[in-house]
Amino acid sequence: MRETLTRRDVVTAVGVSTAVAVAGCLSDGEDDALDHTGEPHLEIAVGDDGEDAFDPHEVRVSQGTMVHWVAASSGHTVVPTDQPDGGGWDGSDGPIDEGDEHVFTFETPGEYEFVCEPHEEGDMVGTVYVEEGHVDDHSHDDDHSHDDDHSHDDDHSHDDDHSHDDDHSHDDDH
What we know:
The protein has 174 residues and is α/β, with parallel strands linked by helices. It has a domain at 30-134: Immunoglobulin-like (Sandwich), CATH 2.60.40.420. Helices cover 12% and strands 28% of the residues. It contains one helix and nine strands; from the N terminus they run αβββββββββ. It has one helix at 7-27; strands at residues 34-35, 41-46, 54-55, 58-63, 65-71, 79-82, 101-106, 110-115, 125-134. It has a five-stranded mixed beta sheet with strand order 1-4-9-8-6, with no helix packed on it. The protein has a four-stranded mixed beta sheet with strand order 3-2-5-7, with no helix packed on it. β2 and β3 (54-55) form a beta hairpin. The longest helix is centred in the N-terminal third of the chain and has 21 residues, at 7-27.
């Protein structure tokens, strides 16, 4: 015996399916993003545990936060797909190898969406929400500009005309 569906049955089924799909899409978003506001640095694992994923994949940070995408496996990229005007983020220059990292300091508030291009179809995507309010890990001087050349010096110095002596002596004659 064959059961016949009415037009009403089909419309109801499609409506319920659409509502469930939309609710699923709305479950991720800025409200669900891990809150790292006020932190000067954040690390996002790329391809951790052999998974094609960013961990965490959604974060909320303050202006001036330096985000480090650290590759736990090879063959991944970090490429922005959408960002606010003036965001200035170009993404990785290609695949990053295991142990390497891509670094960017977010200065412009807004929403930055990014993907791993080889694994985008597998949902290897992420979002950084940048909130207004600057993080300054040099609390003694609010006028520091951050050097975004992504170099990694062990002494954590910046191009800001302030020298840091290894002997920690201070010259009180300004």
